[in-house]
Backbone:
């Protein structure tokens, strides 16, 4: 009874998943752009932005300000690149994906993570906030290591899963700020709101990525089939192949 | 000539507490409210309410004999408790405002983003220092 409906149900699920992913990427892209615009005053060396003023006095002010500027610049470049790397359009172009992936990975490993760790130790909200930021950094570092090693082994399923964890943790930047605004509108104390807005997105994004990785519609369980699909899609002349297939089909029907 | 004009100043002049409150509102509270809007930032959202508290009704004098009045700005979010956010002092003659950050006093323009150095020996009464 259910069998004939199954393919259309699965198709609907796939379409829903696809559009959810697209909406997520678009929303994060927009959030990243907004954060970049808001963060521009950090590069005005004459004035201090409110986020810096409320942290004063800082133990190592020059180091902290330097780390903040590196972190903001690396995130402004790294997060959109990560979102771009998640797009099917770039995944189909294997050499571009590889080149951009290496660049972004280097940026995350050499600039975003070290500066983030420095900032974490002076985070607003005390030890709990420091622990939250360090956990996020640890997930990113671990996922980067696993993801790179998986890519070198051509284990693309594990690579995709690890990279989703990185994007998930980077999305915390947008989600936590949105949550701060929402909790402020509800009249929640800003110190409490700050901690909730950090920990909830950090844990939730890790959980969502793990949950998604167990769903066959998002991550095909058949590794060979998945690798084959990627290889097929990364073929340099996909259009030519499609046209040839169509022509052959038409010719076959005609004969 | 001026001495012949009856002085109405005492009647119209605000009290020391009122003067300090007006000075702090004009110099700190209002500019801060105008500067900080709700945005997608990790910085603390602007308070829902704020008030200026002047803990003493008499003037204090610093080591150089200049008169000042200490003040505190309290803030509140939602229906939460009032909490002291900024403490500092207002100088009676010049109208200059200073705020305490850590153990040092800075010109209040620091809160508006100006990079300024701490000022020594301000906001501390000579009696307290000796």
Residues:
């Amino acid at each position: 009874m259910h069998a004939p409906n199954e393919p259309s149900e699965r198709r609907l699920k796939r379409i829903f998943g696809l559009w959810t992913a697209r909406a997520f990427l678009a929303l994060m892209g927009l959030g990243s752009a907004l954060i970049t615009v808001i963060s521009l005053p950090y590069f005005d060396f004459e004035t201090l932005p409110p986020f810096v003023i409320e942290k004063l006095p800082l133990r190592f002010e020059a180091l902290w300000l330097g780390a903040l500027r590196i972190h903001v610049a690396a995130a402004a470049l790294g997060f959109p690149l990560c979102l771009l790397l998640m797009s099917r359009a770039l995944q189909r172009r294997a050499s571009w994906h590889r080149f951009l992936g290496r660049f972004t990975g280097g940026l995350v490993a050499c600039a975003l993570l070290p500066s983030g760790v420095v900032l974490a130790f002076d985070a607003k909200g005390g030890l709990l906030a420091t622990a939250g930021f360090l956990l996020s950094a640890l997930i990113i570092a671990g996922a980067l290591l696993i993801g790179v090693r998986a890519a070198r082994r051509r284990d693309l399923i594990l690579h995709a899963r690890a990279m989703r964890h990185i994007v998930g943790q980077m999305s915390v930047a947008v989600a936590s700020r949105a949550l701060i605004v929402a909790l402020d509108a509800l009249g929640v104390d800003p110190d409490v709101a700050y901690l909730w807005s950090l920990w909830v997105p950090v844990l939730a994004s890790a959980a969502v990525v793990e949950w998604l990785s167990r769903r066959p519609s998002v991550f095909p369980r058949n590794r060979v089939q998945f690798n084959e699909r990627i290889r097929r899609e990364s073929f340099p002349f996909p259009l030519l192949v499609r046209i040839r297939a169509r022509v052959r089909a038409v010719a076959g029907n005609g004969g | 000539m001026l001495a012949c004009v009856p002085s109405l100043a005492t009647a119209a002049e605000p009290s020391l507490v009122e003067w300090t409150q007006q000075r702090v509102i004009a110099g700190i509270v209002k500019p801060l409210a105008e500067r900080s809007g709700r945005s997608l930032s990790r910085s603390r959202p602007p308070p829902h309410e704020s008030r200026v508290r002047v803990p003493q009704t008499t003037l204090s004098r610093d080591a150089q004999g200049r008169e000042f009045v200490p003040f505190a700005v309290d803030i509140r979010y939602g229906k939460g408790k009032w909490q002291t956010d900024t403490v500092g002092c207002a100088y009676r003659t010049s109208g200059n405002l200073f705020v305490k950050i850590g153990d040092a006093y800075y010109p209040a323009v620091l809160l508006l983003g100006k990079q300024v150095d701490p000022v020594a020996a301000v906001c501390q009464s000579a009696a307290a220092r000796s």
Summary: Residues 16-35 of chain B form the longest helix (20 residues). Strands of chain B lie at 49-53, 60-61, 67-76, 83-91, 97-101, 104-107. The longest strand of chain B covers residues 67-76. The helical segments of chain B are 9-12, 16-35, 126-129.
